[in-house]
Write a structure and sequence with these properties.
121 residues, mainly alpha
Length: 121
């Protein structure tokens, strides 16, 4: 991406892919009919970590880094790629938060239905 103009292939498409990955990872990591907010929070944290790492790999590919080039300064390179991926979180982070909120409402709905079935409500 360094030295290239902003375009669909090097900006919009990767960001859209990371946003889709964040939502899909949240969906995949959340237990189906969970009634636990802590499990949901763990799934959201896992989805964020997966997306952050995938973003770092994607930025490495877009910048043309090869494994031989990573050997020179692996920690500095990893930090730079993770920093770029964290910047992309400005796009996929709100979508992940929205998905988390929607799933949290579903958890509370299932909890309320369970309480009503037990006759405590």
């Amino acid at each position: 991406m360094t030295g290239q103009p902003v375009g669909w292939l090097n900006t919009a498409l990767p960001l859209a892919g990371l946003a889709a990955l964040a939502v899909a990872a949240l969906h995949a990591l959340t237990p189906r009919a969970t009634r636990s907010q802590s499990r949901l929070a763990a799934a959201a944290a896992g989805a964020a970590a997966v997306t952050l790492i995938a973003g770092a790999v994607l930025f490495g590919i877009l910048r043309g880094l090869r494994p031989a080039g990573l050997a020179d300064a692996p920690s500095a390179t990893a930090f730079a790629l993770l920093r770029a991926s964290a910047g992309a979180a400005l796009v996929w982070g709100p979508l992940l938060a929205l998905g988390w909120l929607m799933r949290a409402q579903g958890v509370e709905r299932r909890r309320g239905e369970a309480i009503a079935r037990e006759g405590r409500g």
